[in-house]
Design brief:
The protein is mainly alpha-helical. It is built from 19 helices and seven strands. A hairpin with a 2-residue loop joins strand 1 and strand 2.
């Protein structure tokens, strides 16, 4: 019999025994007998029991198919029903493998390497599921949703009793309610398209925009600086107040509220190779130092907090005569795209950029692709230069 077939029989036998009685209870001899091979063959294929457990996680169809759970759920135009059906299908799979999950959570044979392999498999599954929901329900943060489901499973498997929720239906009702209350608070941001087409601005355009804004006044100079040094969108900037700006000799950043949490956004001293002041002396600090009004908003016009529409209008005035290939003026969204690409080219990881922006890795992927192209082009041009 072919070795691959023997290997798959051993993996399936191990999975069956692990699921029915747990990892520790299943011996290598029992697994070999169930697969109708001798124990020596098992050791030859996997080295030891831990190697077999790793193979179960990495190669078995049950674990490889975790990401396809969502495709078993009936398509629905109702996002709430889609989430409920997906969660129910996921929890049903966990119910069928409760002994196996208990083993991974608490038994000594579930060593660190095994738990890491399980975490990697869950991460891959989460990415596959996230891709599906990004198309069908882009306002839902499915990674957070999945994390809550995992927490539910762990609580049900490890706690003998609790009063966290009445039953499964009660838990799902609460989770979906929280999910959509968060989505509502993020509506202004989630409605803003994160285009798969990234059009970052050329260096000389950016410096020209910053120079024109400086000539238009201290506040406009500060606005352009924040747009291009922080990557914030106009609707995020319009909601800032003075207390959200932190500046001393060691740092300069904005505390931006995203849903119920604050995230720190650095204000870069360097923008595309040119330095625009220091942490304590830059266009924004100059604007704040010269202000005479008592308006708490970071930017204000006629005694009122500046609106995102007014910021966009200022942007258009700074870009007058600067035309893209399609004959249109650069959009204010391109300031944000330029910042993201520059941060990636300067070495920030996708995970850290996700933390700063509040976007998922999937939403950041177009920026990763664009920065890779720019880096490759820069390297190719450098290689083409004549050596000294």
């Amino acid at each position: 019999m072919a070795s691959s077939s023997t290997r798959q029989r051993l993996i399936q036998s191990a999975l069956t025994l692990f699921t029915s009685g747990g990892i520790s209870a299943a011996t290598t001899r029992q697994i070999a007998e169930a697969a109708e091979v001798n124990e020596v063959t098992l050791f030859r294929q996997f080295g030891n029991k831990q190697g077999l457990i790793l193979a179960v996680i990495e190669e078995s169809e049950s674990f490889q198919g975790l990401g396809s759970i969502v495709h078993r759920v009936p398509a629905s135009g109702d996002v709430v029903q889609l989430l409920r059906d997906y969660a129910s299908a996921t929890l049903e799979v966990c119910d069928r493998s409760s002994e196996l999950l208990r083993s991974f959570l608490g038994e000594p044979d579930a060593a660190i390497a095994i738990r890491r392999a399980l975490a990697d498999r869950l991460s891959v599954a989460n990415q596959q599921i996230a891709q599906y929901f990004l198309r069908t329900a882009p306002s839902v943060d499915i990674t957070i949703f999945n994390s809550a489901l995992l927490g539910y499973v762990m609580a049900e498997l490890t706690l003998e009793s609790h009063d966290l929720w009445r039953d499964r239906a009660d838990f799902l009702d609460r989770l979906i309610q929280v999910c959509f209350s968060e989505s509502a608070s993020l509506k202004g941001l989630s409605d803003r398209p994160l285009s798969s087409l990234v059009e970052d601005l050329p260096d000389h355009w950016v410096h020209q925009i910053l120079d024109r804004s400086r000539k238009s006044g201290v506040q406009e100079s500060a606005l352009a600086y924040v747009l291009l040094a922080s990557g914030l969108a106009p609707e995020e900037i319009s909601g800032l107040n003075r207390q959200q700006y932190i500046s001393d000799r060691d740092q300069s950043y904005l505390q931006v509220k995203l849903a119920s949490k604050f995230r720190p956004i650095p204000l870069n001293q360097w923008i595309l190779g040119k330095r625009y002041g220091s942490y304590t002396n830059n266009p924004l600090t100059k604007w704040l130092k010269q202000r005479k009004d008592d308006q708490n908003a970071l930017f204000a016009l006629d005694g009122q907090p500046i609106s995102s529409e007014q910021i966009s209008q200022m942007w258009q005035s700074w870009c007058e005569g600067v035309l893209r290939a399609d004959g249109e003026l650069p959009t204010v969204l391109q300031a944000q795209q330029t910042w993201c690409v520059e941060m990636l080219m300067r070495g920030i990881t996708a995970e850290n950029l996700s933390i700063l922006t509040g976007w998922t890795i999937l939403q950041i992927q177009p920026y990763i692709d664009r920065s890779s192209i720019k880096l490759a082009l820069a390297q190719a041009m450098q290689l083409d230069q004549k050596s000294n």
